[in-house]
Structures are given as C-alpha cells and as structure tokens.
TrEMBL record:
SUPFAM superfamilies: Eukaryotic type KH-domain (KH-domain type I) (SSF54791). It comes from the Eukaryota. Residues 1-24, 59-91 are annotated as: Disordered. Belongs to the BBP/SF1 family. One of its GO terms (biological process) is regulation of mRNA splicing, via spliceosome. It holds the Pfam family SF1-HH. Necessary for the splicing of pre-mRNA. Has a role in the recognition of the branch site (5'-UACUAAC-3'), the pyrimidine tract and the 3'-splice site at the 3'-end of introns. Residues 132-225 form the K Homology domain. The lineage of its organism: Eukaryota, Fungi, Dikarya, Ascomycota, Pezizomycotina. GO terms for molecular function: mRNA binding; pre-mRNA branch point binding; zinc ion binding. The keyword Zinc applies. Gene3D superfamilies: 6.10.140.1790, K Homology domain, type 1. This is Branchpoint-bridging protein.
Length: 316
C-alpha cells in the first residue's frame, strides 16, 4: 500500500533544513571526511543561529511532573542597576547557545577556507567582532613586583606603544583585570562592566588567526621580562617612552652626547715663553705686570719712592 504524500500548505510549518544558507539539503555525491566535518559544522552553526534569531532558545512550558523533576535548581536571582533580572532561565539558555556557537565558529574559521561568520555574530558573541575568534590571556605579575609599572610600559605615552604592538602582531591587545582602570571609572563606554574585571591583572589578546595570537603573546612577554629583569636606569623601552613623551609634550631637547664632547683648543700662546697661556700670566718673565703696562709704569713714575714701592711689589 502506497503511503500518501503529505499535502503542503502555505500555513503549515516550514522545514528548517530548507533554510540553510547556501547549503544543499541532499547529498548526492561522495564526500571526504573533511567535507563531512565542514558540512556538519555549517549545519550546527546555522541551526543555532536560526534558534537565536527566532527567539526559539528554550521552551518555558513544563509538560509533566517528570520534566519538572529533571530540571536543575535555578541560581540565585541577579539584577542590574534598573532592577531587571539578568539571569532568567531564558537568558541563561540563550547564553549557552551563544557560547556553543562560538565554540563551533572557531574551528570552522580555522579549517574552512574563506569562512564567514553568520550575520549578527559580533553582537551576540560577547561583544567580539566577527574576525576575533581566538583569544588568550597573559597574566601580569603585578603582585610579585608591585614597584614596577607594567601598565605604563605596555601602554606607553598616550597608548602609542600598545598601538604599535597591535599593528606589529595583527592582534588586539587589551589590559583587563583588577587595577586596569582608575578608581571611580568604568572599564568600558556607556557604563558597561567587563566580565573579567574581578580577575587578576592580565592582557587579553584576540585575533582571527592563532599565529597572530602567538606573535602578540611573545611581544607582551618580552615587555614583562624586560621590566622584571632589567634595572630601571638600563631599560631602553622606558627610555624611549620618556623620550617620545617629551616629544609629544613639546619639552624635548636633543642634547644627548653633548656632555661627553671634548672642548676645542683656544689657540692661545705666550709671547715670552711660547706656552699655552697669556703673556701677562707668564711666570718666566719674573713679574706679573704686562709688558705694555710695565713700560708705561717706568715712564710715568719718576719719583724714587714710587719706584721703590713698585720694585717691592714686584718682588712680592
């Protein structure tokens, strides 16, 4: 007996498999294991995205008492500044779906060539951009070395050193954790609080490729090791930052090395002995009076008393 075909109605439910963007719903050719894995990732990501877009995250109705018994205990309620609860059952399940999708998008971007994240992914995956799929934390030993200003050496004058590190590595380096912001200020614009503000001081590195994360991690570790293992007066990075800060503030004076230059010889020679001093200061002449003044003194002093005084003074 033939099974009658189900009549399609415009008011009937639509099969979600037909809504996969750019994905065939029937596989007619053999596929490799890599292609099958990529297809499964696509299907799972699209399914979670559809559930998030249609707000079909979780069913709030409980059908039987058995379902009620299988439910886990709800956590204590949490409220925001406006008094709204932020950890409802629906929201907690939605966050779990977003986290699951993020865990699927990460291997998809690493294994599938020219993969593009689903639309709206950056607004749902904890504020990341669609390209920021890989992250790692590098903790700063601020408690072990409280006398070292790690944040200042990482940021540099007006954040220029950190911007140079981002450009060199291709990743985004951000300082997070306790002590990363001043007291009385929030860690983000619009009064939002970072979820890792209660963690120890660290650098959060995000990038779209693992090699960029490794490159940025090495740059951060080099700065930390240089600040810890190098004395302050020998730290070239800090010296360059102070120089750049003086240039930015307009107080820089390029006088490096001038104190080490030797003075030029004056070219003074004595007419009496030929030494490198003035003729009036020559000790070989037997008098400290200049020749031109001594000749004038002889002509002007005819009094024997004055001559005796002059001779006495010259002998002294």
């Amino acid at each position: 007996m033939a099974i009658p075909a189900v009549r399609r109605s415009r008011w009937g439910p639509e099969n979600p498999a037909t809504r996969l963007a750019g994905m065939p719903t029937s596989i007619t050719a053999p596929m490799t294991s890599e292609q099958l894995d990529a297809y499964v990732l696509h299907v799972r990501i699209e399914d979670i995205t559809r559930r998030l877009e249609t707000d079909d995250a979780v069913s709030t109705t409980i059908t039987t008492s058995a379902d009620r018994d299988r439910r886990s205990l709800s956590p204590p309620p949490q409220y925001d500044g406006a008094g709204r609860r932020i950890n409802t059952r629906h929201r907690r399940h939605r966050e779990r779906l977003e986290q699951k999708r993020h865990e699927l998008v990460r291997p998809a971007a690493a294994t599938i060539p020219q993969y593009r994240a689903p639309a709206g992914y950056h607004t749902q995956a904890r504020g990341r951009s669609p390209r920021a799929l890989f992250e790692e934390k590098v903790y700063i030993p601020s408690r072990d070395f409280p006398e070292i200003n790690f944040i200042g050496q990482l940021l540099g004058p007006r954040g220029r050193s950190l911007a140079d590190m981002n450009a060199e590595s291709g990743a985004t380096i951000a300082i997070r954790g306790r002590g990363s912001t001043k007291e009385g200020r929030t860690g983000a614009r619009g009064g939002r609080q970072y979820t890792d503000s209660s963690e120890p001081l660290h650098c959060l590195i995000t990038a779209d490729a693992p090699v960029k994360v490794v490159r940025a991690k090495k740059l951060v570790q080099d700065v930390i090791e240089g600040a810890v293992g190098t004395p302050e007066h020998e730290n070239e990075r800090k010296r360059r930052q102070l120089r750049d800060l003086a240039v930015v503030n307009g107080t820089f004076r390029d006088d490096e090395g001038r104190g080490l230059r030797r003075g030029e010889p004056a070219g003074v020679s004595c007419r009496v002995c030929g030494g490198g001093h003035l003729s009036r200061d020559c000790r070989g002449s037997g008098t400290t009076i200049a020749p031109w003044r001594r000749s004038k003194t002889r002509t002007a002093t005819a009094d024997p008393v004055d001559a005796a005084c002059s001779q006495f003074l010259s002998e002294l």
